[in-house]
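Project standup — Tuesday

K.O.: blocked on the structure for the chain from last sprint. Re-posting the sequence here as requested.
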Amino acid sequence: MTCIPEHVRGILNTLESGGFKAWLVGGCLRDMLLGRPVHDWDVATSARGAEIGLMFPKTVDTGARYGTVTVVTADGPVEVTTLRSDGVYSDRRRPDRVQFVDDLLEDLKRRDFTINAMAITTAGELSDPFDGRGDLERRLIRCVGRPEERFSEDALRMFRALRFSAQLGFDVDSSTMDAVRSCARLCAALSAERVRDETEKILMSPKPELIGAAVEDGLFSGRIEKAALPYNALCRIAGLPEDRRLRWSAFCAVLQRVGLIPSASDFLLTMRLDAKTVRYCGAGVAAVLAGPLPEDRIGLKRLLSHIGPDAARCAAAADVVLRGGDTLRRIEEVISGGECFSIAQLAVTGDDLIAMGIAPSRQLGAILNKLLDHVIDHPEDNKREVLMKRAQKP
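H.V.: unblocked you, prediction finished:
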């Protein structure tokens, strides 16, 4: 099991020295037991927020209403949360009210999945009332208590079930999966940002094809109609580089190919993706759905010239997923090879042509484009003296 870092152990020891109980909980403990890297450390304690703030030199009330205080250390922040039980989730996201408690079991009962409902002390005493460790060994995602209740509290937990399955390579328990399908309509009330973030985590996982289950089971309710997606195409996403834009492009290309979205750009806008991702993915998917991408080097350079390298990489990623092949590798070879496919890479500039007597005008742009067109066909001619002579020809 991963050793507890000194700054985290220090927080646990400080709480215990102050007369309070303290445990590592949730995802950090899960990943420790799996031998995976831990990125975020979470502590549960019997101490209340005001008491936590008095014990450490620097804290931030990141969720005072829910009992969460972030302890700031030189080695990174650690979230410390008071033991609590949750009330009704009327907005299907957060409890309307919480009750702070002293019973660890009450706190663990409110959590989503058994593998996230364990706690351990610095002495190594494990509390595992729902057999989360057994589910880790069985490689199983299973809800704490009745899955319908967990999902009605927070519908995003359905996406999280598939996300953990994709990231960890675990199966989803059959009763949990049945509840996902029966409760999927509740996801329509989720914000686009929350759905976007979970979708991206699935796409970036070792098993991105599980995003197909989210579509088929109706988790994109209100955004995408339920439908079966081509499994083999989705499986190819895993072979793409771990680049979020490439994987979003591949997913959007599959959705648009089967008619579930009008365009990648429209879909990504509704999912609140950043402007550059919307632009590059949208242009890339549009290019690949317009027809097969070129296979020859000159054709690939013309594609790069037309839509730019970022969009061309997105197009190539989508092409790999839709049709197979190695278009992305060949695009990357052209980009890394240093061959000219843009006006900025020409051995002459607009200033050179102006100095030669060509007035700034549409004609200047037309000449530069003509030179680029020539250099794409004849890369050996990308030399200043050659291009200056060609620029003077009618």
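K.O.: great, moving the ticket to review. The first helix runs from residue 6 to 17. The CA atoms of residues 206 and 331 lie 24 Å apart.
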